[in-house]
Amino acid sequence: MHAQDWMRATSRYFQVLAPVIALGGYLLLGELWLLSVLALLPLATFLATPSAPARTHLPEQEDMLTGLLTRDGFENRLRAFFVRPVEGQTATALFLLEITGFAEIKTRHGEAAADAVLRQSAFRIRAALRQSDLIARVSESRMAICLSPAPSLDDEACLQLATRLQTALEEPVALPVASILPGWSFGIHRCSLTADSAELAFDRAAQALEDALRTGPSALRLFTPALGRRATRHRRIAEDAGHALDRDQIEAWFQPQISTDTGAVTGFEALARWNHPQLGLVPPYDFLPLLQKYGQSERLSDRMLQHALSNIRAWDDAGLCVPSIGVNFAAEELANPTLPDKISWTLDRFDLAPERLTVEILESVALGPGDSTVIDNVNHLAAMGCPIDLDDFGTGHTSISAMRRLSVSRVKIDRSFVTRIDQDGDQQRMVAAILTMCERLGLETLAEGIETPGEHAMLAQLGCTHVQGFGIARPMPAAETAPWIARHNTTLSPPPTIGRGTA
Fold this sequence. Notes:
This protein has about 500 residues and is of the alpha/beta class. It has 19 helices and 17 strands.
């Protein structure tokens, strides 16, 4: 035994026997002995206490609002799980969960209400888990959970736990003036402490959460290799989107619109397409929100306008009849007071009349709470002679007075009303009501998303004046439009000749 250990053991025995020694000595030797024992007792206590071990990591911090671990504290504990796994306890799962629409909660209800939601959520997570599970707040509205290691764990158990947690978290949070119904999305990675690393596990859970957030509110996603490949692609898209316009990788493709009466081409719609040099064609729903996030929506609208008018000028020069071309304008562009002057100047540059450019505005943008500049701009463009299309009609809350206030000339019926209309009586009655309303208001109509001859025929029968969709043609690069128009025109029957017959 080392001298230090011998002294510590002796001191502990002295502490235990001190009352007996003190009493016996007092009876035999008097007060002097009692005072000596009492003087030695603090020294014995000090020697018997083992020294504290040296710290091996930085102190873990606690989130002031929720009482959960901070991200640094969580990552330290998580790494410890992977560095020193307990034999036979190597299965775990990492959950990343985020409140959807947290910014809207703060805007609508205030900072104090948002804090209350976070505190209540942290309480509910603690109540649903074991004390040995790690729980942290890793960003403003994102939390992380690592289950205490176990001998085994399967996907079904992870999804069941996530569902229970989501149900608990999405219960109303009662506040003094309102109740908030938060939505939560989950990303889950089931992992092995011997095969994975803490960093890899966290990244894969983050990839699963990103996929869940793209899917919609209250989605659950379990990491899979296919999801990982998809997440890698989306991250590459997000990294490159900010430079796509500068590198001329985004261009206009064109989808034709035809008359249901004659079958003739009545226009094209210009649609943004990103041809990524490595990833190929990127769908607009993957990159349009990113361009908006990077503040490049106006630049995109300018690019589409230039490409659209350039191509309609080229069709005119080639002797092809395309009455107009539609261009979508972002909310930021519609709120720009200089928009009418910009469009007027661009039309003059290409020597085109205003009626050749159809201005497409989303129902949600045009009829949202609003900026009077948007209404003024739309009416100014209509007064110039530009037709105004109200896009995605039926997905918002349009009022007739709002439609008239905006000088709308045509309503584009959303594809959700068009799909299987030839087989669904309710769809037919709904579209018939829309068409009757538009007829009474003197508005033309265009149905989007036509995919089958049956849908086309039913819409023509109901009285819709124009159609557009994959059943007519998919969006195509500018170089393919002229050949398509020529082929389409050969399929049209000439109108019957009415006149006096010859003898």
